[in-house]
Amino acid sequence: MLRRFFVGGNWKSNGTVQSSRALAEQIAQQVQAVDDRVDLVVAPIDLHIGLVKDIVPAKVKVAAQNVSGTGMGAYTGETSAAAVKDFGLEWVIVGHSERRTLYHECDKTVAAKVEISLKAGLNVIACIGETLEARKAGNTFDVIKRHLDGVAAGVKDQKQWAKIVIAYEPVWSIGTGVTASPEQAEEVHVYIRNYLADNVSKSVSNETRIICKQTMYYDARPWPTVVSRLSDGGSVKPDNSVNLIQQKNIDGFLVGGASLDAKSFIQIANAPKLAGRFSML
């Protein structure tokens, strides 16, 4: 099944006006090296979305990192999906592990955000993944199923699955010194695809892109610089992205710290080419 590769950069709460402008300009200068069969998305902090959107070429889409589960109205501090769409954005991240753990977002909240985002016409990067405690207890697939149930609850029309990218986050590997191997990631991706086949349809299972968050790319700069910039956890390996993308059910990456360096981000975006995945299409 032909699925377009997808690479998203989540800048999180990082960047000043100056640094976000510089990063966007660097990506704009280097992005032509990325194969057109890769969809590229970056998600700056809200205050810098307009700035970045004006700099990057059309080849790079800009996403919101979060969205309200409610509509417009008296919800101080919230940004509605309708407002995100009205601003000209096409993508939003929902259910990120940091939203779940730091801000106690539950599956019901994720379902509401998925539903309202799809209703507004946005594409959704839906994040799921288990903690170290869950993995040690042997509850990986129980957690994945629960998270998938939450995402699915927000999808009211089967056709809307075409607007969803599922991002598997092995939360247990973040900041623990333990790295998810390509085989471990593939195992969960296969489970996700089987879930979609059993609970939605085989066509949705075949067509839905499932990406992996655990990707740290080698950077030739001195270690102190690398560690300070690539701080998501996990192991920094020269061929990590290439090794992951060789798995047939991994369709791309959601990149954290490495997306703050344009060169690293572009290298990761080129992983499908380096892995020879295009020759398999």
From TrEMBL:
Pathway terms, separated by semicolons: Carbohydrate degradation; glycolysis; D-glyceraldehyde 3-phosphate from glycerone phosphate: step 1/1; Carbohydrate biosynthesis; gluconeogenesis
Pfam families, alphabetized: TIM
One cellular-component annotation, GO: cytosol
CDD domains found in the cross-reference section: TIM
Catalytic activity as recorded in UniProt: D-glyceraldehyde 3-phosphate = dihydroxyacetone phosphate
EC numbers, comma separated: 5.3.1.1
InterPro entries in the record: Aldolase_TIM, TIM_sf, TrioseP_Isoase_bac/euk, Triosephosphate_isomerase, Triosephosphate_isomerase_AS
Key words of the record: Gluconeogenesis, Glycolysis, Isomerase
Gene Ontology molecular function, alphabetical: triose-phosphate isomerase activity
Gene Ontology process terms (BP): gluconeogenesis; glyceraldehyde-3-phosphate biosynthetic process; glycerol catabolic process; glycolytic process
Domain of life: Eukaryota
Subunit note: Homodimer.
HAMAP family in the cross-refs: TIM_B
Family note: Belongs to the triosephosphate isomerase family.
The protein's name in its UniProt record: Triosephosphate isomerase
